[in-house]
Amino acid sequence: FEPGSRVTESEGEAIVDAFRSALPDADVVALSGTVSDPSIAWLYSKLIPLANDAGARVILDSHGPEFVQGLKSTPFMVKPNLQEAEELLGVSIQGEAAQWRAVDSLHDRGVEQVVMSMGKDGALASRGDTKLRITAPAITEVNPVGSGDAFVAGFALGLVQEQSLEDTARLACAMGAANASSWDIGHFDPALVARLEDQVVVTRISS
Question: Would you put residue 162 in left (φ > 0), alpha (ψ -120 to 50) or beta?
Answer without folding.
Answer: left
